Amino acid sequence: MEGLAKIEDLGKPRVVIVGGGFGGLELVKALRHVDMQVILIDKQNYHTFQPLLYQVATAGLSPDDIVSPFRKIMDEQANFYFRLAEVQRVDTVAQVVETSIGLVKYDYLVVATGATTNYFGDEQMQRNSIAIKSVEDAIELRNTVLSNFEKALQLGDEEQMNSLLDFVIVGGGPTGVEIAGALSELRKHVFPKDYKELDFKQMDIHLVQSGPSLLKGMSEEAAQKSLEYLRNYGVNVILDRRVKSYDGYTVTLNTGETLITRTLIWAAGVAGAPIDGIRKESLLKGGRYQVDEYNRVAGYENIFALGDIAAMITPATPEGHPMVAQPAIQQGHLLGQNFARLLAKQPLQPFHYHDKGAMATIGRNLAVADVKLMGKDYRTQGFLAWLMWTFVHLISLIGFRNRLFVLLSWTFSYFSNDKGLRYIIGKRREPMPVEATTEKAIV
Amino acid sequence: MEGLAKIEDLGKPRVVIVGGGFGGLELVKALRHVDMQVILIDKQNYHTFQPLLYQVATAGLSPDDIVSPFRKIMDEQANFYFRLAEVQRVDTVAQVVETSIGLVKYDYLVVATGATTNYFGDEQMQRNSIAIKSVEDAIELRNTVLSNFEKALQLGDEEQMNSLLDFVIVGGGPTGVEIAGALSELRKHVFPKDYKELDFKQMDIHLVQSGPSLLKGMSEEAAQKSLEYLRNYGVNVILDRRVKSYDGYTVTLNTGETLITRTLIWAAGVAGAPIDGIRKESLLKGGRYQVDEYNRVAGYENIFALGDIAAMITPATPEGHPMVAQPAIQQGHLLGQNFARLLAKQPLQPFHYHDKGAMATIGRNLAVADVKLMGKDYRTQGFLAWLMWTFVHLISLIGFRNRLFVLLSWTFSYFSNDKGLRYIIGKRREPMPVEATTEKAIV
Known about the structure:
2 copies of one chain form a homodimer.
Chain A: E1 14-18, H1 22-30, E2 37-42, E3 46-48, H2 53-57, E4 67-69, H3 70-73, E5 80-84, E6 87-91, E7 96-99, E8 102-105, E9 108-111, E10 115-117, H4 123-128, H5 135-152, H6 158-165, E11 167-170, H7 174-194, E12 205-208, H8 220-232, E13 236-238, E14 243-246, E15 250-253, E16 258-260, E17 263-266, E18 270-272, E19 283-284, E20 288-291, E21 303-305, E22 310-312, H9 325-343, E23 357-363, E24 366-373, E25 376-382, H10 383-396, H11 400-416, H12 436-439
Parallel strand pairs in A: 1-2, 1-9, 2-5, 9-21, 11-12, 11-17, 12-13, 20-22
Antiparallel strand pairs in A: 3-4, 6-7, 7-8, 10-18, 14-15, 15-16, 19-20, 23-24, 24-25
Helix pairs in contact in A: 1-9, 5-6
Protein name (chains A, B): NADH:ubiquinone reductase (non-electrogenic)
Catalytic activity (chains A, B): a quinone + NADH + H(+) = a quinol + NAD(+)
Organism (chains A, B): Hymenobacter jejuensis
């Protein structure tokens, strides 16, 4: 689009925020009483609570319970403007963002585009695997799992059937661990009732992790216990292996070993989602912008980046902050206050990360948690960690409705061992026909 | 598919039911303790509670709260088999159903395919309008409405903008009336907060009804009051007019009058969804099979039809029963019992319809109800009718979870006047570009 997008000019300093994830959203809220025009651009009209996407993918939660429309969240914020658009590039000289709905002028630009799945250049993997970065991804995975079982009912060939029943998850971070745990619970409690004609002893869940332990970045206790929990659940955790290739049917590991599956879940890496037009010199490896302690992108006075897309390199954080929700939220909050200081010509406050720790859940009553409380480390695994995980995720959700509905869904699941949202609505992936003969229905 | 679909042969009489709507589902349940193999074929893996689809379309309910996976509903029913498949035709001589997953043999066949939208042969209308017969339809309508407003923000030309803000609903039956009411409530309470930059005085809701009154088949009081309620809500109810054509932008009425809209909701008619291979002589106008009082399709001993697709012509019902949930449910229930009688070589019971009446809701505290209780007619409009409507729909939903979640959603909406599920996820319809120049973003 060539012309200017139609947005009132308030004659006030205008900050354009690209991306309404944890960081962007927190920034918008922090600017509530700041005398600026706040424009949020996102390609979705809702915020996604990413930590619970894996539960949407495994029929435990409705997509509706973990998303919140931006316009609804900010109903009361007078200086807030939202535009549903894709950002194509930035012209930093003219100070305009080029979007699918036209040009948007800015005085200050904040890049909060987060991260996308990193396939490390493997296009075949990108085509054949499923990621869990968006609600649409999670819905697609749910639909695909269920469709696979419906199809498996028609197969007689054992390898063919197994290719539909088996799952390979690549990446032993929180997402990989959590999805492996959730699939195990479905295998134990739900699928055998739904598909009495299938033998779920044949359903294998493989979790491939390139390093020697799970949950890199968490404590050794967390890594050990999560491994123990998953193995008790019957997950085949394969450590110290990399996936070399996947053609939609055969997974080949770096050792030459192979696994057969129609469904490979790729949770092995993320990379920043940079925007064209911002100087390449500021882009570090992993697609993150180098920012100073005020989240200013190196080389610019009026362009900021925060959250996953920002690498704040300091002596204490030589690799930047972890690409999770907390740094994004804290940076968004501080940046909002710093904009107020900027307008008042007061000195800006530098960012200090308050690391609250990390958690991952494996299943019912089972989680691992490394918590920092008033500077002290607490490590716990099992029921207490699970309670903490549950509590923290509930209060972090946006809005009373979503909290209540998730709490109720969890309460139902807890007492019934059921995950009831097992319908196929929306996009699904058709497994590639492998051999025409074996796909035929047989008696 | 040529071969037989893979389904165990139990050596018992096998009934194949095509379609898991109200009738098919009730029949499956009624066959719980009957010594038959019960096979349900549906192209979705879930039952849809159609009466509340309009609330999904207007962001009031989550699609997840009005659907129930067949396998979950029938978890405990040992003689139940489900197949996700599309039925292509029936070979009544060989007694097989040809489906997308292969041939399925039957001893008894029950056609419970319901009804589809009837465009009366108008292909242009079919292409350009949106119906509300399935969850996917309802999601598409919700996404389209929201996308329209996002797009309207970029338009300066008044007619163009109005084409996105205005809605034309064709058909003054319950669906048309309910969707018109729900859109009015959104216009009054929700959209002005979400889209402060748009002028909702410009949003027109037109309801076009071919006859002289709304809610044909209900009492005169119901027709009168629903008209009054809708007009008080600011709906432009146009009686005694037919829509002659719609090109995606201009609606032309039979009088030559025109309306401009990008979104025409077609709720003007349904027709049965017959299956190829069943004798055409049994098919009456409206695409319904002529059945006897045991729901047997004319000309067959072992083929039955029930619900919307069945026309049980008797002196008392010269046009068959109304195409709504109640006759389908009652026929499904009786047919299940009759199968037991059939196997026991006992005489079958003929069907008698217990008409419980009809209802439609317009909005908060406003509904119309014609109720039959112990043979007596009660007619009520307003708050009491609304309470009855609410209660009846709640208890008719399947499963405790859906009932609780719908009750909570309604309670939230009632006290907040809000309908919170305003996200664009899944399929949406892009409005056709009308003139390239006017679609351009302008300052």
